[in-house]
Every structure is written in C-alpha cells, then in structure tokens.
C-alpha cells in the first residue's frame, strides 16, 4: 500500500463518518416533524420485526404532523402501538386507515436534553475521525520503517492528513451548531 492509497482510504472513511453522523442527526427530534423520525420504529409483520417504512407510507401532512398510511388493513393497530411504545414520546391518532402522528411541542428542558445528545453524537463523530487519522499516521510510519517511503514523505503526508482531519472536524462542528439551532428554535 502506498502513501497515496492510505490518504485516499482515510479521506473516504472520514467522509463516511460524516455521512453516518448526518444520518444520526436526522433521527434526533427537533420541533418540526420529519418522516425520518419514525425510521427507528419496527413493527411486527407476520412474526418478523420490520421497519415501519416497509409496511406503511410515511409522509408529512404539515410542519407538525406525520401521516402513516398502512399498506394492509390490519396493520393500523400494530403500527399505532409501535409508535406509542417507542421512546420518541409520540401519541398517534387513528383516522380510519390513516394514522396521524402530531409532534408535541418540546419543553425547554427537553430541548436542552436534545442538544446534549447532539453534542454527544458530534463528539463521537470527531473521535471516529481522529481514530482514522491515527490509523493513517501509523500506516505511514510502518511504510517509513519498512523503507518504502522517506521521512520527508511521512511529514508531508501527516500534514495532509491533519488538514483533512481539521476540515472534517470543522464540518462536524458546523452540523452540530446547525442542529442545535433547529432544536432551540421555538
């Protein structure tokens, strides 16, 4: 493996860490409704636990209401029960075949709890990026030790990897700040 391979692999893995962090952020509740909030909910379907999106159509009615339209008649009660029993604190209401999930307004205390969760997720993403930096630097040191690269190449590569790390950490900080702003908005 060459230094260029190590750098490109590290860059790709850091980008994947950012993508995973963004995905985690969509699941954290703000004051607005989002169909992604219900992605973590699983419903029993013929003896198997399947994601809600595989048994129903999830959409937004308005900024504070999610609609869940089951694809089969008998699934309404099971879906409603799964949403109610989730840790999201939602109270679905059935209207015939359609299930409406209104977003209750969040209290100030709950908003602060959510910002702590966002910061914690952000810190985990930063740790993942820093671990990738460490692994890349160790791989480059092994190349120098095995005389497959020079010490000058090592210094340049470590500086490039550090720049990439700084860029990704700045992006994580920006995502955290943006999500906190969304959460604290009333």
UniProtKB/TrEMBL annotation:
One Gene Ontology CC term in the entry: cytosol
Molecular function GO terms recorded: ribosomal large subunit binding
Q: Which InterPro entries match?
A: Ribosome_recyc_fac (IPR002661), Ribosome_recyc_fac_dom (IPR023584), RRF_sf (IPR036191)
The UniProt entry's GO biological process terms, in alphabetical order, are: cytoplasmic translational termination
Annotated ranges, domain Ribosome recycling factor: 21-184
Domain of life of the native organism: Bacteria
Transmembrane ranges, per UniProt, are none
Which key words are in the record? Cytoplasm, Protein biosynthesis
Cellular location(s): Cytoplasm
Classification via PANTHER family: MITOCHONDRIAL RIBOSOME RECYCLING FACTOR PSEUDO 1, RIBOSOME RECYCLING FACTOR
Q: Which HAMAP family match?
A: RRF (MF_00040)
As for family, the record states:
Belongs to the RRF family.
Q: What does this protein do?
A: Responsible for the release of ribosomes from messenger RNA at the termination of protein biosynthesis. May increase the efficiency of translation by recycling ribosomes from one round of translation to another.
Name of this chain's protein: Ribosome-recycling factor
Q: Which organism is it from?
A: Ottowia oryzae
């Amino acid at each position: 493996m060459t230094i260029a391979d190590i750098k490109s692999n590290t860059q790709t893995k850091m980008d994947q860490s950012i993508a995973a962090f963004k995905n985690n952020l969509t699941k954290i509740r703000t004051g607005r409704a989002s169909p992604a909030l219900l992605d973590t909910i699983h419903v029993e379907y013929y003896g198997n636990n399947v994601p809600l999106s595989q048994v129903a159509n999830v959409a937004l009615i308005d900024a504070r209401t999610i609609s869940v339209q089951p694809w089969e008649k008998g699934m309404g009660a099971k879906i409603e029960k799964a949403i109610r029993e989730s840790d999201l604190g939602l109270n679905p209401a059935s209207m015939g075949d359609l299930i409406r999930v209104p977003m209750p307004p969040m209290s100030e205390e709950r908003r602060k709890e959510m910002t702590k969760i966002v910061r914690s997720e952000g810190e985990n993403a930063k740790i993942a990026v820093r671990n990738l930096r460490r692994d890349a630097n160790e791989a480059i040191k092994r190349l120098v030790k095995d005389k497959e690269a020079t010490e000058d190449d090592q210094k340049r590569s470590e500086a490039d990897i550090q720049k990439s790390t700084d860029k990704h950490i700045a992006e994580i900080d920006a995502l955290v700040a943006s999500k906190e702003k969304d959460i604290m908005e009333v």
